[in-house]
Amino acid sequence: MAASEPVLSLRSAVASLGPRTVLRGIDLSVSRGEVVALLGANGSGKSTAVRTVIGQVPLTGGSLELFGTPFARFRAWHRIGYVPQRSTAAAGVPATVREIVSSGRLSRTKLRPMGRGDRAAVARALEVVGLAHRAGDSVNALSGGQHQRVLIARALAAEPELLIMDEPLAGVDLSAQDILADTLREQVARGTSVLLVLHELGPLAPLIDRAVLLRDGLVERVTDPERFHDPACHPHHDHDAEAAAAAVRTGLSLSDTDPGTHV
Ligand SMILES: Nc1ncnc2c1ncn2[C@@H]1O[C@H](COP(=O)(O)OP(=O)(O)OP(=O)(O)O)[C@@H](O)[C@H]1O
């Protein structure tokens, strides 16, 4: 693919969950090295949008290309790391932190045993999320926020070129948020592209190149940066508007500043 080609391109994407049409024709793209935040109220379709990208929710209309390849022909899943919305998927599973993080290498090792490079990538990922000292512990012994950090480490262990994270900061305390912001900054400096579903921009604000706002399954054009103060964008917490304002101050470009290219 050409350097300028998006790593992710959803065009006129339509998707349903049960009887409900959740995405009603959205365009969303991420260029190489770009960090894009997907914002919007509860139920606006953010998680569904990222789940279409990783194939968990099928498109019923429109198209999806990953690294310039139509979704139906895309096989290079090792190029994509995904952190699901905070889940307890591994809870109850008798696995250690290291085992869960190592599973992030599966897309690279296939069925081969892990080599030195794989083990180093796992160790690095554990280190950056600050859980190296818990590597041998059962994931069931972790708090919710620590669990979230394990899922982030699992995605990082694959050394992906596109990192997709659905509310990665949910339940993660402020000092760990700062660690994750540093981690992400490092990944971006290495050329990793990032798509983040966020409610709070928080310490990630300076990293974000562009924000896309969803409302009722459609991308909303934002003509006024003050729009990010609208509680409808950030329904969870009072300080969301403040965080969004910080993002605008730190150079966040809105989705309609570059029409036709990115959004
Ligand atoms: N399994 C399902 N069956 C039917 N409808 C669903 C299902 N899961 C989600 N929905 C609906 O789809 C819509 C979009 O949900 P989605 O999780 O994508 O929103 P979101 O923007 O990520 O919300 P949140 O901020 O609360 O995480 C919501 O109205 C939700 O109720």
UniProtKB/TrEMBL annotation:
SUPFAM superfamilies: P-loop containing nucleoside triphosphate hydrolases (SSF52540). It comes from the Bacteria. Coiled coil: none annotated. Residues 8-241 form the ABC transporter domain. Keywords: ATP-binding, Nucleotide-binding, Transport. One of its GO terms (molecular function) is ATP binding. Belongs to the ABC transporter superfamily. This is ABC transporter.
